[in-house]
């Protein structure tokens, strides 16, 4: 038996493959449901209300991302696995969640004032529960660490299923933009109740200063990376609102909603292999093999998906969401190209984090954020959506230079050709 896992180490490969299958099936099914919900609600509510909700979503989810500074990853990466260590990690997670819930409440009037729309105040306050909802699902970390993917994914499926069942009928009954608040809330209540009920460890507070220092040391660079991501995500919403107006925020929200599924294959693979990477730290040849094969697998989804979005964005507008969304076409195509480039070697950050080094991915994120501010925002002001797209793509390319340097440092035998070539035949 392995000290890290409750199963023999020679089962690691089999469990990793099985986990990829389970995770893949889960994400395909759930994403289909979420896409269906998004398209139906988009057609029912229209650009202005979707733009309004897009402001709330970007602000809230970016702050939640800011809160998620890798406490769960640090818990999986380190050696301790008992109830006391879980409770130490949960205490830090819950504490930061309370702070961010209060921060969301404090930001609500600020966001409403910045966008000069009083409707945003109520929407922001109604979304402030989200950090606590994520924290209370901490038992999922234990199943992830143990590579018990079936149980983990079954619990994660509860929220989107319940959300769909509540959101769509409310949107169709003239409940308006608040259907997008009440539906997810119902889903999180059900998911938290189920997760706590089957948790192998009790949810209890256990403060330990040494453990807190250890987790903070791991998390500080993840915080830097998340702040940089906030600059890009929130910056593009603010820029479009200031330059083009609220309707264009709606177009951007649709483009982001559609293109965010670019990373689903990476989520499948990275969410599966992270515990395995942590278990084989320092074994360069094995890590190189895992990196190349995992990125080949993800590009089999990413490359056709992005090319498909570029080719068929006009048909998506014509036959699915309606002609009033025609201006979103260039944003969908541009963000698809940026997403494709960004996912070349995308999961490299997991290899560094599994080795306890969170600094290099943060540096890449900072470089991309600076390039975004220097190129994409002026491009929007000067040339509209086309200029924004060109600047956004250029910022990603600059970030890839940083990524290549650090990948070569840890995995010197890895080449872009070995990753990219096997993914080309399906596209052709």
The low-confidence runs, each spanning 5 or more residues with pLDDT under 50, are none
Q: Write the H/E string, N to C.
A: HHHHHHHHHHHHHHHHHHHH
Helix count, per DSSP? 20
User: What is the global morphology?
Assistant: globular
Range of helix content? over 70%
State which percent range the strand residues make up: under 5%
The helix/strand class is: mainly alpha
Q: Could you tell me the number of beta strands?
A: 0
Distance between the termini: 46 Å
Please state the average pLDDT score.
Answer: 85
Question: Rg to the nearest angstrom?
Answer: 21 Å
Description of the molecule:
- There is one protein chain.
- The protein has about 425 residues and is mostly helical.
- It contains 20 helices and no strands.
- It starts with 11 loop residues before the first helix and ends with a helix.
- The mean pLDDT is about 85.
List the helices and strands and how they pair.
Layout: H1 12-45, H2 47-67, H3 71-77, H4 83-114, H5 119-126, H6 130-135, H7 139-145, H8 149-156, H9 158-172, H10 179-198, H11 209-243, H12 246-259, H13 264-279, H14 284-321, H15 329-342, H16 348-354, H17 359-383, H18 385-410, H19 416-420, H20 424-427
């Amino acid at each position: 038996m392995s000290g890290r896992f409750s199963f023999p180490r020679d089962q690691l490969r089999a469990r990793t493959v099985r986990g990829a299958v389970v995770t893949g099936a889960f994400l395909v099914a759930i994403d289909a449901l979420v896409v269906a919900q998004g398209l139906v609600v988009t057609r029912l509510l229209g650009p202005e209300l979707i733009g309004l909700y897009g402001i709330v979503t970007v602000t809230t989810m970016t702050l939640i991302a800011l809160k998620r500074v890798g406490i769960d990853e640090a818990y999986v990466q380190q050696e301790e696995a008992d109830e006391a260590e879980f409770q130490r990690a949960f205490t830090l997670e819950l504490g930061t969640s309370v702070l961010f819930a209060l921060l969301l409440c404090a930001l609500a009037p600020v966001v409403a004032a910045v966008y000069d729309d009083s409707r945003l105040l109520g929407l922001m306050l109604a979304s402030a529960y989200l950090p606590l909802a994520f924290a209370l699902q901490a038992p999922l970390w234990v199943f992830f660490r143990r590579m018990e993917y079936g149980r983990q994914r079954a619990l994660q499926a509860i929220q989107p299923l319940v959300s769909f069942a509540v959101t769509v009928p409310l949107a169709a009954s003239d409940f308006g933009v608040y259907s997008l608040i009440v539906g997810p809330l119902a889903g999180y209540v059900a998911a938290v109740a189920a997760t706590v009920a089957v948790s192998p460890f009790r949810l209890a507070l256990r403060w330990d200063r040494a453990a807190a220092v250890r987790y903070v040391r791991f998390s500080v660079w993840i915080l830097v990376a998340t702040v940089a991501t906030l600059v890009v995500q929130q910056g593009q919403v603010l820029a479009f609102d200031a330059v083009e107006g609220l309707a264009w925020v709606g177009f951007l929200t649709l483009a982001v909603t559609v293109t965010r599924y670019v990373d689903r294959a990476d989520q499948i693979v990275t969410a599966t292999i992270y515990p395995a990477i942590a278990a084989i730290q320092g074994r360069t040849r094995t890590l190189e093999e895992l990196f190349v094969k995992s990125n080949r697998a993800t590009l089999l989804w990413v490359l056709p998906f992005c090319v498909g979005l570029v080719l068929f964005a006009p048909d998506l507008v014509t036959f699915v969401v309606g002609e009033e969304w025609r201006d979103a076409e260039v944003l969908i195509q541009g963000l698809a190209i940026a997403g494709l480039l960004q996912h070349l070697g995308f999961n490299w950050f997991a290899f560094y984090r599994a080795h306890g080094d969170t600094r290099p991915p943060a540096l890449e994120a900072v470089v991309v954020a600076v390039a975004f501010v220097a190129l994409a925002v002026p491009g929007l002001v000067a040339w509209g959506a086309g200029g924004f797209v060109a600047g956004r793509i250029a910022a990603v390319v600059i970030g890839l230079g940083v990524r290549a340097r650090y990948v070569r440092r840890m995995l010197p035998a890895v080449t872009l050709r070995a990753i990219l070539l096997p993914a080309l035949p399906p596209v052709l």
